[in-house]
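Final paragraph of the annual report: two paired records, presented back to back.
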Amino acid sequence: MKAIEITKAGEMQLVEREMPQMAAGEILLKLKYVGFCGSDLSTYLGKNPLVQYPRIPGHEISAVIEKIGDAVPDSFTVGQSVTVVPYTNCGQCTSCKQKRFNACRYNQTLGVQRDGAMAEYITVPWQKVLKDEALSDVQLALVEPMTVGFHAVDNGKVTDLDTVMIFGCGMIGSGAIVRAKLRGATVVAVDIDDSKLAIAQQLGADYVINSKDQILHEELEKITNGDGPTVVIEAAGNPITYKSAIEEVAFAGRVVCIGYAGNEVAFPTKLWVQKEMEIMGSRNANPTDFEAVMKYLKQSSLDENVLISRTVEPEQAPQAMKDWSEAPGKILKILVKF
């Protein structure tokens, strides 16, 4: 079968791999679309410390059930359209015991610690397969990347009384914008790319700020009457936005961190203490986040194609990844169509 492999940093190619062998309790999936994630870009650039090469990337999945193994519930049938929860969980660590499976100490994500879904076929334990015939193949491929932003909003305990500022309007930030609006919050989207800010407005952002062209603090002062946003979600992974999140969040506010900054971040502990702010991480997503995104995609009037920058064939994937690596700020989502 065809598979897309990151052979080493800066090198991606189309390869032939053996068909996966299906074990008891597993389902064989035929891939329809797989999205490139920011973690795949980091792997391609040689900046992902969790990856060993060669690696098949991909964990944003749209597929159909090709074959069903033994010991799989009868509710799964051949031909069903599905997506996949791409994380493992051990069930025994402190996170799992609290049912926070997304933060499992021993998690292995498809395409990161183990080979992913950029191939014609994969096998998956039935417990990780989510079926929904009402969603299109493209929508199913957008579920997982949107769940990460949904989960961050959940961690931030966002309500309709909050003003939520979101740093970074990529795919994860887009999910956070959608979820915060569904919670009834006032949403401020911040980025340095006007095209992404235009999409943020289509997703429901009440205010957009280009922090390259506008003075962030002054704009927030006007929007919040000098109080600052009650919740800040950092989805840019930049030391500058990490520091701004601490500086701009309201007193007694919450800062939720999704992005990985490339360098260590120093900030004044005085603000942390004086504001009595909560600073928390947000990793992956839980099953309820998947349910919420799937419900949103079924009920929303949004044309999900606004979230997709390019759709390519497997043969075009290496060039698409090279293009993304050279202009990362211009790409929201690349889908590979199998």
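The closing record of the year follows.
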Amino acid sequence: MVCLTTDLIAKSSSHLKKKRNHSLSEYLKTLTHLNFSNRNIENIGDLSMCGNLTVLYLYDNHITHICNLGFASNLTHLYMQNNNITCIENLFNLQKLSKLYLGGNSITVVEGLDQLSELKELHLENQKLAPGEKLLLDPRTLLSLAESLCVLNINNNNIDEIRDLAVLKELKHFSAADNKLHDMEELEEVFSHWHQLHQMDLSGNPVCQTAKYRDRLITVCRRLEDLDGKEINDLSRQFLINWKASKEAKKKVKDEHIMASQLTAFPLTTDLNTAQSSQPGYDYSQTKALHRKKPLPSLRPSMRVCSDSEREARNYRHPTLTPFCY
């Protein structure tokens, strides 16, 4: 097993000439760039004497765990693609890290980046996944990167939806080629939040076969300059934007006409008989019978001529009553 240590650095031919006039400890303190790519390294040892390290190249090795990098508080670039890493861990002390390359590993969940507030580029393409497995991105990690991340590469990771990526509002370059993205409406919704996007690659996804795929994305991403490797000129963009605005205006007018015609056909107040008769099992003849006019009862009593004796008798019994007999 090859382990990256200060002794291995001291014995490296690329560093022998540089450290002739310095002690090993002094020389290690002056190091800012360290390149041990493709050296069959399986583990990272104690490198705490390299406190001024800013760029570390460890790609094309056999490293299985990210460890012993807590000393590298000045590290800005970390290249660890094409190793055997399965978990993103032990990076919380790298407060100045701006570029992280982890493509070609065996990572299944993107996490452990919550403390990297300066991270601008994240490369995760071509993970070695088990059949039927897809790369997952932890929503908490995405939220922590929302204000800083400008470049994201997730090519070829069996990804079928990117809804959680909408929070990455500072993205300028996005690569998700050779995945399983298929929902055009979902993409339009996510991209409508990315106002800084300049370059995007979605080639090799099923969604690319959707009608008007390119036109629809160009109208959503107003600053997009390159889509799937093809340049977008300002004239084409403006034409598509105007075309979309005209289409939406026509649809609005059509909807208004439909609404007006519906209001005309179905007035707000309807005849009671019509409303009742539309009910199932309703007998319209009953309504006609109920509404048939009936003669009002007479309020005036029948009149007949009273004799003088009858009139006098009534006035005697009820002198205040007005006689009705004449």
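The radius of gyration is 42 Å. This concludes the annual technical report; the extension proposal builds directly on these records.
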